């Protein structure tokens, strides 16, 4: 009856009374919906559901390496411990960091004494988080879903969708962390919007929700008859998070004009093009580790 109610709501109202994101087909990217991927993953899930001894964090064996960025070969060399999200291979720590960082932070990393509790949990991941908080580190964020929205109705549509003000006097290059809401005021999406031009925006979504957010934008554009264009950039732009107290000094050491990223010239929540050793980088000053940092976007060939 629960599924029946959800389907009836979707068919009659285009929405559901409760949050059914877990069974919303729009959460899947096109590459995840091939017959081969669906059949193999369904077979594996059935085995996991009806085999109690399977660990809840056990990585999937099927539907792997559907999406990898240019940094992936290097991550493999570093001994990345990979899990999958939205078809992307995403490292949850690196074996190469274990010797130095575990020695440095051993007394701060909790010990999971029981094998079941420690399985598919990599202590080095905790140590890497601590290093980000105290020094600097890089995180591969290429799984972020990136969409550029442009056109004569781009501003009015994004203004309608977002909770925060993103139009009017919002300057080009300003980034805004905000939400999309549904028709009843519930949170539909959690994302970042950067104004690229008077009639252009870059929307940066989490990898696991990116396609669902894309479908929502398209549906709202159709409903409002908005004249817009959406260009997906996820498969053409590689993303790194450079975060930590030493992020600025690290990045400045790679630039011919380090003053370009000073606090005065590059304040928080702004984005602009910079040059890093001859590589064109679109840099967005934002961080999710409680310290300074940037998201660095480069065309795949430079990755």
UniProtKB/TrEMBL annotation:
Domain GCVT N-terminal: 72-299
Residues covered by the FAD dependent oxidoreductase central domain: 13-68
InterPro entries found in the cross-reference section: FAD/NAD-bd_sf, FAO_M, GcvT/YgfZ/DmdA, GCVT_N, TrmE/GcvT-like
A Pfam family the protein falls into: FAO_M
Gene Ontology CC terms: mitochondrion
PANTHER family registered for this protein in UniProt: AMINOMETHYLTRANSFERASE, AMINOMETHYLTRANSFERASE, MITOCHONDRIAL
Designated name of the protein: Aminomethyltransferase folate-binding domain-containing protein
Source species of the chain: marine metagenome
């Amino acid at each position: 009856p629960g599924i029946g109610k959800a389907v009836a709501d979707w068919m009659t109202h285009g929405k559901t009374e409760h949050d059914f994101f877990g069974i919303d087909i729009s959460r899947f990217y096109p590459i995840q919906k091939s017959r081969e991927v669906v059949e193999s993953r369904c077979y594996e899930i059935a085995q996991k559901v009806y085999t109690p001894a399977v660990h809840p964090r056990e990585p999937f064996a099927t539907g792997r390496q559907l999406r990898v960025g240019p940094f992936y070969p290097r991550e493999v060399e570093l001994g990345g411990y990979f899990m999958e999200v939205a078809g992307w291979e995403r490292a949850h720590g690196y074996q190469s960091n274990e010797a130095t960082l575990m020695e440095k932070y051993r007394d701060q990393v909790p010990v999971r004494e029981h094998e079941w509790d420690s399985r598919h949990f990599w202590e080095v991941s905790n140590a890497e988080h601590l290093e980000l908080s105290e020094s600097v580190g890089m995180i591969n964020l290429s799984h972020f879903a990136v969409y550029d929205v442009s056109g004569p109705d781009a501003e009015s549509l994004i203004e309608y969708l977002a909770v925060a003000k993103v139009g009017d006097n919002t300057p080009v290059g300003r980034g805004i962390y905000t939400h999309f809401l549904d028709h009843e005021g519930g949170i539909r999406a959690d994302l970042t919007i950067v104004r690229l031009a008077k009639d252009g925006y870059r929307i940066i979504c989490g990898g696991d929700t990116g396609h669902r957010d894309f479908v929502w934008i398209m549906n709202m554009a159709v409903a409002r008859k908005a004249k817009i264009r959406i260009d997906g950039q996820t498969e053409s732009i590689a993303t790194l998070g450079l975060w930590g107290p030493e992020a600025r000094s690290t990045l400045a050491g790679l630039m011919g004009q380090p003053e370009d990223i000073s606090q005065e010239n590059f304040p928080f929540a702004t984005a602009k093009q910079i040059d890093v050793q001859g590589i064109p980088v679109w840099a967005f000053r934002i961080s999710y580790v409680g310290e300074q940092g940037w998201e660095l976007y480069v065309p795949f060939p430079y990755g």
